[in-house]
Amino acid sequence: MRRILALVAMATTFLTGCGGDDPGDPDPPTTGTVIVAIDPPTLAAGWSLTGPNGYANAGTGGVQLPDLEPGGYDITWLPVTDWTTPLPQSQTLVAGETITFTAVYTYDPLPLGTVTVVIEPDDVWPDWVLKVETGDGAHDRSGMGDATLLDVPTGAVTLDWEEIPGWSSPAPGYVTRTLAEGQVLVLTIDYTLLPAWPMEFVTVDAGAFAMGSPAEEPGASFVEWPRHDVTLTRDLVVSVAEITNAQWDEVMGGAREPSPTAANLPVTEVTWFEAVDFCNALSLDEGLMPAYTVDGDVSWNPDAAGYRLPTEAEWEYFARAGTSTALSAGELVELECEPDPVLAYYGWTCANASVKQPVRSLYPNDRGLYDVHGNAAEFCWDYYGEGYYDVSPAVDPAGPATGTYRIVRGGFYTAWNGACRSASRTWRTPGLTNAAVGFRIVRNAVPEKSGGGR
Description:
By secondary structure, the chain is mainly beta. It has helices spanning 2-19, 245-252, 272-285, 312-320, 388-391, and strands at residues 32-39, 46-50, 56-60, 63-68, 71-77, 89-93, 98-104, 112-120, 127-132, 141-144, 147-153, 155-161, 167-168, 174-179, 184-190, 192-193, 201-204, 207-211, 228-232, 236-239, 292-295, 297-300, 377-383, 406-409, 425-428, 437-438, 442-444. The longest helix is centred in the first third of the chain and has 18 residues, at 2-19.
């Protein structure tokens, strides 16, 4: 009996042990630990760690990352100035284990030199950028005017400088030199004052064109409608650019803009009446019959040989240069202040200028006329009439007989691109000045004499 009871007890113990929980045999671990170590430990080096199931982490310096899923892990090390950058590393993490990524950085400073930037003449202060071709851009410098730059890494260095209105600078706008260890490299930029442009003209033959904009033209306004056919019967002599400060001073006397760098900027801050006075003064200087009679009001003799402001129709005709597109060189893509692939080459607008620019510094249209799309807006002869296009004569239109405002054409240096289209039109009070409004002049072309007559 005792033997039977002992066997029963042994069987019970065996069965209980096989079917119960055993605290001495826990579940196996499911995660592991990644350690990131930097040598030397005091170096603030950055790193980027990726792992299974889209895991990504980044940090600076040494760190311990527990509870990570098993699988493959990759780490890349970020560069530290004057230290070598370790190669990327890869390891596989097993559940319950720890892997360590160690970055060993070695101090390896670049050999250095000195760059001195010298600007000539001393009264010119352009912005410049010195680019050091070490690959990371960390050693690039920028400044204005003369400067001495210490601790510049050796090798190829490139100096870029800005263009300054009224001055020419060495083309193509940058210079690349090689800096040797311990060397003092002197980079000199010589700016040359641009000579004043003479007053030059081109002849534009009479002809016909479609004036105004089509309704579907981007940026078009109702004041440019309806588009209508116009015939101009007078051949014109047209100034190739807007009248400049130097040209104004030559005709009217005085020093409107005393700075020599302003000589080739378009003259602005003149009233419409002062533009008329300029035309008459130049006509008298050249022995031509003035086109205008000023007696309280201004009257125009269309047959006079003297200089004058163009009519609005004449202005659009020579600005278009035979085209029917939004610009004299093609269509306009960017209406606002983003650089346009066509307009950027022909006009100064809010996209590429914040101040007036020297005339003739971009491309001309096909008639040889500069700045018809921007820089300074240009006074025309005509009074402004909102509905004038509905009643405009088909031949030699010259605007309404009366009005309050005078037409202004061509856009200007702070205008949105859409305001610089060939058809764009606006108006100004003739007795007021504006920093963005100037003028261009024309005169009737004198027919060439033929045969033996006098």
